[in-house]
Amino acid sequence: MSGTTDAATATPAAGVPIPPVEPPPHGLGVSLPSADASAKTQGTFPYAADLWADGLLWAAVLRSPHPRARILSLDTRQAAELPGVRAVVTHADVPGDAGHGRGVADRPVFAKDEVRYHGEPIAAIAADHPDTARLAAAAIAVEYELLDPVTDPQLAFEAEPLHPDGNLIRHIPLRFGDPEAVGEVMVEGLYRIGRQDPAPIGAEAGLAVPRPDGGVEIYTASTDPHADRDLAAASFGLDPERVKVVVTGVPGATADREDPGIQLSLGLLALRTGCPVKLAATREESFLGHAHRHPTLLRYRHHADAEGKLVKVEAQILMDAGAYADTSAEALAAAVSFSCGPYVVPHAVIEGWAVRTNNPPSGHMRGEGAMQVCAAHEGQMDKLAARLGLEPDEIRRRNVMATGDLLPTGQSVTCPAPVAELLRSVTEAPLPDLPKDTPAAEWLLPGGLEGAGEPGAVRRGVGYALGMVHMLGAEGADEVSTATVKVSGSVATVICAAVETGGGFSTLARQIVQETLGIEEVHVAGVDTDQPPAGRACHGRHTWVSGGAVERAAKMVRTQLLQPLAHKFGMSTELLQITDGKITSYDGVLSTTVAEALDGKELWATAQCRPHPTEPLDESGQGDAFVGMAFCAIRCVADVDIELGTIRVVEMSVAQDVGRVLNPRQLRARIEAGVTQGLGAALMENLRTTRGQVRHPDLTGYALPTALDAPDIRIVNLVEERDVVAPFGAKAASAVPVVTAPAAVASAVRAATGRPIGRLPIRPQAAVAQSAQAVPQGAQA
């Protein structure tokens, strides 16, 4: 029998039909894999620590061993005379602005007359070998006059000025409603939040290469390259056009990522020597140099009526900024604004301060400000529930916020705020089984298999927390991003200076173009400062602002593509659709491919996205300071050995307000990572200091949660109520579980032990119950 057979209908000898080959799914709403996943798993991803250049020199930085001291003399002659040393730079070699900073330019490139924190840069060296550079740094002779460090932020108000700008960075006195209002029931609490480190997977590294025009190129894992370029240009005394920042692979970022002092040292050394200069910081240098979460002291007083409805919240919030301002003013604004949580509060009196100390620098981390106050206001809700004899979830249900309610700043919550639904989802989720009291299950108990506790001393606690964060910048920040989309043949390219830090922007950009243009092969170009700025990679802004810019540019290209066809067939472009690379009309008359419509032409468009403006808080803490907000509810189940104070988090059930799911797998990974980071803040992460001296700045002295510490994270509900002012209606995903998780863990430990739990991370002695029989809300595990 002769003839041809259609491959789609051919059958093998066994008679089993061969299904047609389906094209891989793409576009929004699909779990598209990350473009760099293969390179990262194969070890070919281009991290800054792997960079190389001909004639390379190595850098080292001399850092202060003291938290506060006056520099009496600085002698670099012995270091400069060592064989192989090519340059030594100090404050005297900074040609431009001596001060820099993310928020306020109050931080010197190198300390001049005084060091203000342990690890502050004093000098930098370039040599032909990294060991030579480190030896030269050790050979620099510095004579110090030790000064008493101010490490208690409460003493900063009366202490002598630690900085020419004074010790007070910002004070926000918020007044909302009637300050004289009181409730029938009142509870008070004191809360302390520790210093969490971003602990990036890869420590800071970079390469600076001099340019023929007298400028310099800096290759580093920047999360805001244009801001870093402007900062460097000002320090180098150069026009910004003569400084270029090229973003290398970012090995994860949960903060601003880089110690800016490394970039500035590298650039100065490259300009001085005329050679490429590289620095790969040790883990200790990384801990000492970059910013951390603000340690915070919070005093709260909650007033409620007899039914548990909140009447007034009073709070004092004191944030430790460390030696320099950085983003502390921004963090304080978030803390004060969200100090009452996602609850309806008719009256509020909040005092917030951010002060300088001689402690390590504080700055941006996921949920800055919001995380600290969430731990406090949720602790207060647990206290109110206990005082009124209500269940912890019930006291929250009676007070939850909804769309249209007011923040204590007077701003109306115009975005979707499904807080009641989130709380109901985690409350109704099934509880995990209790571990069986058998030797085979002992590893499930707190302390693990080698734990010294007795199973009979373990109590199970169930706790709840509701959290909220703002999206994008605040208080008048100009949030704008620019993107270009080019199409040539069957390939599209996205050019946008939005840095991929692990948040998934590169994948999202591909999905947007696939959805809009029907082109499967989409590439995202590398990022440098020759491109228009896209802003910082935080607060979910690249999903919103940069994603919005990509969408607008793609739609402009779509119009260019469809207009000739629409004109030819006498119809509007709105009557044409693109699906799976094919262009069809509503009536089926037109059917062609995108490649055929392009006919060899290259199309491109550039667009911007700028959300609606915000305003600074006024002298009473009032104002529309935020573009949008996201909410989360978490129920934590924890087993606690009430004799030893060991804690094992069994399960975290999460319900989150996401607006719209753009990439299901990526979204769930972001939420799980955020919960795990919050778990670290709750139980173990705290960069400890003694009178400003960092203790054990390494990954043996600073504990991080591992896979063995991570609980079962169950995402029980993703509420897709789209925010109409956001592109695609999506909301920030990773910050709000970081904010909410520590408060949920603390709530569960309170339930298991009956102890107040006012400090994070939770110390073992705080989790020891006063009486094994006096556990009001716990169940024996």
TrEMBL record:
<dbReference type="Pfam" id="PF01315">
    <property type="entry name" value="Ald_Xan_dh_C"/>
</dbReference>
<feature type="compositionally biased region" description="Low complexity">
    <location>
        <begin position="1"/>
        <end position="16"/>
    </location>
</feature>
<dbReference type="InterPro" id="IPR016208">
    <property type="entry name" value="Ald_Oxase/xanthine_DH-like"/>
</dbReference>
<dbReference type="InterPro" id="IPR000674">
    <property type="entry name" value="Ald_Oxase/Xan_DH_a/b"/>
</dbReference>
<dbReference type="Pfam" id="PF20256">
    <property type="entry name" value="MoCoBD_2"/>
</dbReference>
<protein>
    <submittedName>
        <fullName>Xanthine dehydrogenase family protein molybdopterin-binding subunit</fullName>
    </submittedName>
</protein>
<dbReference type="Pfam" id="PF02738">
    <property type="entry name" value="MoCoBD_1"/>
</dbReference>
<feature type="domain" description="Aldehyde oxidase/xanthine dehydrogenase a/b hammerhead">
    <location>
        <begin position="42"/>
        <end position="148"/>
    </location>
</feature>
<feature type="compositionally biased region" description="Pro residues">
    <location>
        <begin position="17"/>
        <end position="26"/>
    </location>
</feature>
<dbReference type="InterPro" id="IPR008274">
    <property type="entry name" value="AldOxase/xan_DH_MoCoBD1"/>
</dbReference>
<dbReference type="InterPro" id="IPR036856">
    <property type="entry name" value="Ald_Oxase/Xan_DH_a/b_sf"/>
</dbReference>
<dbReference type="InterPro" id="IPR037165">
    <property type="entry name" value="AldOxase/xan_DH_Mopterin-bd_sf"/>
</dbReference>
<dbReference type="InterPro" id="IPR046867">
    <property type="entry name" value="AldOxase/xan_DH_MoCoBD2"/>
</dbReference>
<feature type="region of interest" description="Disordered">
    <location>
        <begin position="1"/>
        <end position="35"/>
    </location>
</feature>
